From TrEMBL, chain A:
<keyword id="KW-1133">Transmembrane helix</keyword>
<dbReference type="Pfam" id="PF07331">
    <property type="entry name" value="TctB"/>
</dbReference>
<feature type="transmembrane region" description="Helical">
    <location>
        <begin position="54"/>
        <end position="75"/>
    </location>
</feature>
<feature type="transmembrane region" description="Helical">
    <location>
        <begin position="125"/>
        <end position="143"/>
    </location>
</feature>
<feature type="domain" description="DUF1468">
    <location>
        <begin position="18"/>
        <end position="152"/>
    </location>
</feature>
<feature type="transmembrane region" description="Helical">
    <location>
        <begin position="15"/>
        <end position="33"/>
    </location>
</feature>
<feature type="transmembrane region" description="Helical">
    <location>
        <begin position="87"/>
        <end position="113"/>
    </location>
</feature>
<protein>
    <submittedName>
        <fullName>Tripartite tricarboxylate transporter TctB family protein</fullName>
    </submittedName>
</protein>
<keyword id="KW-0472">Membrane</keyword>
TrEMBL record, chain B:
<feature type="domain" description="DUF112">
    <location>
        <begin position="20"/>
        <end position="438"/>
    </location>
</feature>
<feature type="transmembrane region" description="Helical">
    <location>
        <begin position="414"/>
        <end position="443"/>
    </location>
</feature>
<dbReference type="Pfam" id="PF01970">
    <property type="entry name" value="TctA"/>
</dbReference>
<feature type="transmembrane region" description="Helical">
    <location>
        <begin position="169"/>
        <end position="188"/>
    </location>
</feature>
<feature type="transmembrane region" description="Helical">
    <location>
        <begin position="355"/>
        <end position="378"/>
    </location>
</feature>
<keyword id="KW-0472">Membrane</keyword>
<feature type="transmembrane region" description="Helical">
    <location>
        <begin position="147"/>
        <end position="163"/>
    </location>
</feature>
<feature type="transmembrane region" description="Helical">
    <location>
        <begin position="464"/>
        <end position="488"/>
    </location>
</feature>
<keyword id="KW-0812">Transmembrane</keyword>
Length: 163, 505
């Protein structure tokens, strides 16, 4: 099941318009925020609101330039992408984010480890999951106990290293 | 006191056993990440920043510089044996070095790369030591407007002067500048673009952005190509020793590479990749055996490898004397200084000479360590290339998240890591360079402060920005660096610039 982005040469490049829209939206947000902020220019005549406005207008201009570039076909071709590996890795990161406060560092990171390995073609989760868990536990030991980094502890950490 | 005295004092600091140990860790790690494809020195320093929070500042900074130097050494190994550059500054080395390895001359190729790096690193570090005090004197007369002009120049050279598209470079830069606005304004305390989220008040961490862009973005990009094939390293056959004719052909290339690399690194003109490219072109022109180029000419390895090391040393000139990072790695090293409450710049030479000179002196020592690590122990590093990709990238992502979790295990911070990782992936996919966004994020607030200070001094008169000769010529130089490449690209001569695309380190 390998989905990939359409390869046929489309002109103008549709993705460029999405990028341009995103840039314009970000620029507009900055300009809006600049207008909302109180003008505290003082002696400088330039306050905290001015640089966001300047950057915002530049982004809007870059969005326009992107549209022009898209019409002139100046966007480079993209390498074909496979979606499932991407989803495995992003899913792994998301799982880690959700599980971290509840399950602790080693379980959450072990799952990230196994998902990433899966994304790179290591299909045997029954191997990579224990490897990831063990590796994360070792890393926890070194960094939390020796280097005094504060990592969230879960059940395995408490069992192995004590509370 | 003269530079020489300072350097001797620095050597005394650098020979402290603890500092030597930090330097050794730095160069070892640096060589390892240089060898491994997928991680470069910028990412490694970013990953180590949170870990070193509680450690000795001098030792940590020496370790970071060791990583930078080591990355430049290690990258050549991957280029020569695998034909995939270990980091972006070694792309050119792959051209000739891999051909040499295929012809059974991998040993001499590795040797000339390592010895060339050593020679260049040594000369360029000495040049750094003798140049820095002069730049510091110059920098003391710099006011806010000169600093602002200097930062504008750095913005232009990092984003649009090289690479294949000014549009994409500038877009990346302005994304960085937009992110830089988030948080509390440093001059008035006004909260900007924080939308009531308390975690945003502190602004976006440079390390979070860098780790997300370099580690997660890169991992996603490589995974998306779906190539599960393992590249096969070419075994080093025969003697690693160079013959008399190899030496004869190499030494001039080393010196030329150094002479090209150091100024390029020292001026805000781009990173090591540009230096190595220019050196390759120079070697091709100067060689007595031009027919060998493309088939494994030793000059094509010796010159660029010397150039990329010399430019790494050169990059430290603006970083230490002006606080101006010109590459992604330098930008993250600047974040490292700031983490310890140190601001690189002319004042640091006055207030903390021990640290600065200790750092410079330990680079000389790191260079010797690297020569030992990279010649006799080369077989060890080659083994690193046999780590299967799934394990390698799983490990990279583990350490990438570890740093963020260690500093701030909040879902907001991890969420930002994920979002910026996806952004980094999309930027790679669509050919946007990564370095400008990182440099924009760290230099943006500094440039804004200098601009507003300059305008406060002049009571809002904009002409003050071009009123001093130094500021005016820096701004004029920036305009040239912006416009000339645009015209070159329009006339279809952009190919040269595209090849010099500076990306990561």
């Amino acid at each position: 099941m390998s989905l990939h982005f359409p390869e046929k040469p489309r002109r103008p490049d549709g993705a460029a318009f999405v990028i341009a829209a995103g840039l314009a939206a970000l620029g507009a947000l900055l300009v809006w925020e600049g207008n909302r902020l109180p003008q505290l220019g003082g002696y400088a005549g330039v306050g905290p609101a001015d640089v966001p406005k300047l950057v915002g207008w530049c982004l809007v201009a870059l969005a326009g330039w992107t549209v022009v570039a898209a019409f002139r076909g100046a966007f480079p071709e993209r390498p074909r992408q496979q979606v499932p590996p991407l989803l495995w890795i992003i899913g792994g990161l998301a799982a880690q984010l959700v599980l971290l406060p509840m399950a602790g560092f080693s379980i959450a990171t072990g799952i990230l480890f196994a998902c990433t390995a899966r994304g790179f073609g290591k299909r045997q989760l029954w191997i990579s999951l224990p490897v990831g868990l063990a590796f994360s536990l070792a890393v926890y030991g070194v960094f939390d106990r020796v280097l005094e980094l504060n990592l969230p502890a879960g059940l395995p950490e408490t069992l192995l290293y004590g509370g | 006191m003269s530079t020489f005295d300072f350097l001797l004092q620095g050597l005394a600091t650098a020979l402290d056993p603890m500092i030597l140990f930090y330097a050794l860790i730095g160069v070892t790690l640096g060589t390892a990440v240089g060898v491994l494809p997928g991680i470069g020195p910028a990412l490694t320093v970013a990953l180590l920043l949170p870990v070193t929070y509680g450690l000795d500042p001098a030792g940590s900074l020496i370790m970071f510089a060791g990583i930078y130097y080591g990355g430049m050494y290690g990258g050549s190994t991957t280029s020569i044996l695998l034909n995939t550059p270990g980091e972006s500054a070694s792309i050119v080395t792959a051209l000739e070095g891999n051909k040499m390895a295929r012809a059974g001359r991998g040993g001499p190729a590795l040797a000339t790369a390592a010895i060339g790096s050593f020679v260049a690193g040594l000369l360029a570090t000495l040049a750094l030591a003798f140049l820095a005090p002069h730049v510091v004197k110059l920098a003391l007369v710099f006011g806010p407007r000169e600093y602002f002009a200097l930062m504008v120049l750095a913005f232009v050279t990092v984003s649009s002067a090289f690479g294949d598209s000014a549009l994409r470079g500038l877009t990346s830069l302005f994304l960085g500048l937009a992110l830089a606005v988030i948080g509390i304004d440093q001059l008035t305390g006004q909260a900007r673009l924080s939308f009531g989220v308390p975690q945003l008040l502190d602004g976006i961490e440079v390390t979070t952005l860098a780790v997300a862009m370099f580690a997660i973005g890169e991992a996603l990009f490589v995974a998306g190509q779906g190539a599960s094939l393992q590249d096969k390293a070419i075994a080093v056959k025969g003697s690693v020793w160079m013959t008399r004719s190899d030496w004869g052909r190499s030494w001039k290339s080393w010196l030329r590479g150094t002479a090209i690399g150091f100024p390029i690194g020292a001026m805000p003109a781009g990173g090591a990749d540009i230096a190595s490219f220019l050196s390759y072109a120079a070697e091709k022109r100067a060689s007595k055996h031009p027919e060998e180029f493309g088939h494994g000419a030793i000059e094509g390895v010796a010159g660029p490898e010397a150039a990329n090391n010399a430019s790494a040393a050169g990059t430290l000139v603006p970083l230490l004397t002006l606080g101006l990072p010109t590459t992604a790695t330098a930008a993250i090293m600047l974040a490292g200084f700031q983490q310890f409450g140190l601001q690189p710049g002319p004042l640091l030479f006055a207030t903390n000479p021990q640290l600065v000179w200790g750092l410079i002196a330990s680079l000389l020592i790191a260079n010797m360590m690297l020569l030992v690590l990279n010649l006799p122990l080369i077989g060890l590093w080659v083994r690193l290339l046999t780590i299967p990709r799934p394990w390698l990238y799983a490990g990279i992502l583990l350490f990438a998240t570890l740093g963020t979790i260690g500093v701030n295990p909040s879902p907001v911070e991890l969420g930002m890591l994920l979002i910026f990782g996806i952004l980094g992936y999309l930027m790679r996919l669509f050919g946007y360079p990564i370095a400008p966004i990182v440099v924009g994020l760290i230099l943006g607030p500094m440039a804004e402060q200098q601009l507003r200070r300059a305008l406060a001094i002049s009571q809002g008169d904009l002409t003050t920005l071009v009123d001093s000769p130094v500021a005016a010529s820096l701004l004029a130089l920036s305009a040239v660096a912006l416009i000339v490449p645009l015209i070159m690209r329009m006339r279809g001569k952009g190919g040269v610039l595209a090849q010099m695309a500076g990306d990561e380190d």
